[in-house]
């Protein structure tokens, strides 16, 4: 899925990818950098970092100039309204202008939890940059709207002078098809209730855990060290719930070394296991 998504990013007449994360504007989206230590270390060397994700990363607090949470599933809408804000003074084509004009900014902003003021603050940093970089994570690869997400990211590349950083980008086959039609942003799906996020484990022991906040514990009706079943559309997992008081929100971490080909955020049913 990774190669399939990245192949949708156009090459045009310039290199799309960069091997470095050294820039005067770094936009990080779609993963938890604390789960990829090599990237986290490189982000520490930058001053103008903006981190947007559906789950807060405590390790980014001292790194990101702006850190904000959007609702799970809203990546397409967030990218669309951000592209409209950041590229407002660029020389865009008629189809892109029509795409921006038809965006329901108010609805997307309200449903995604990314407000106009946040976008304006991000744009202030971007306007003063000369070599912006977009650091992409795996949340985009398996997203149900990944094709249009790639189309929107191409706007950043084409009109915003962005380069894209992903690990191991050498063998990616890039598309020269610049004529793919932008689609209308889809209605945002609801992720009410208990939500789990499949993420890389920091160690093997983590694959036996579900790590969540106090808020998640209240919603899921679990306590620290409870033995549980985590039931999602993809299967059933035997885990122990571990309370992390530094986590925020109602999304818990489901560490797994073997991710599947579906979107990494899933609504889950949490059931206590009988001893």
From TrEMBL:
Keyword check for Oxidoreductase: yes
GO molecular function terms listed in the Swiss-Prot or TrEMBL record: oxidoreductase activity
Enzyme class: oxidoreductase
EC numbers for this chain: 1.6.5.3
Keywords of the record: Oxidoreductase, Ubiquinone
Protein name: NADH-ubiquinone oxidoreductase chain G
Organism: hydrothermal vent metagenome
């Amino acid at each position: 899925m990774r190669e399939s998504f990245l192949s949708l990013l156009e090459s045009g007449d310039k290199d799309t990818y960069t091997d470095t994360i050294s820039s005067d504007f770094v936009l990080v989206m779609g993963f938890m950098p604390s789960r990829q230590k090599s990237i986290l270390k490189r982000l520490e060397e930058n001053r103008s970092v903006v981190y947007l994700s559906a789950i807060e990363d405590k390790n980014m607090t001292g790194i990101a100039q702006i850190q904000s949470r959007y609702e799970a599933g809203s990546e397409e809408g967030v990218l669309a309204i951000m592209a409209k804000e950041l590229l407002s003074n660029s020389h865009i084509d008629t189809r892109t202008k029509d795409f921006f004009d038809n965006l329901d900014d108010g609805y997307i902003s309200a449903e995604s939890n990314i407000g106009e003021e946040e976008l304006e603050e991000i744009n202030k940093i971007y306007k003063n940059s000369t070599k912006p970089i977009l650091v992409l994570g795996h949340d985009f690869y398996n997203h149900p709207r990944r094709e249009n997400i790639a189309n929107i990211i191409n706007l950043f590349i084409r009109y915003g002078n962005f380069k894209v950083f992903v690990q191991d980008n050498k063998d990616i086959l890039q598309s020269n098809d610049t004529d793919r039609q932008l689609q209308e942003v889809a209605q945002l799906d609801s992720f009410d209730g208990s939500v789990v996020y499949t993420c890389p484990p920091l160690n093997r022991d983590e694959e036996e855990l579900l790590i969540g906040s106090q808020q998640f514990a209240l919603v899921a009706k679990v306590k620290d060290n409870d033995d549980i079943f985590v039931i999602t559309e993809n299967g059933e997992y035997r885990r122990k719930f571990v309370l992390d008081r530094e986590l925020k929100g109602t999304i818990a971490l489901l560490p797994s070394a073997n991710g599947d080909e579906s979107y990494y955020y899933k609504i889950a049913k949490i059931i206590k296991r009988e001893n």
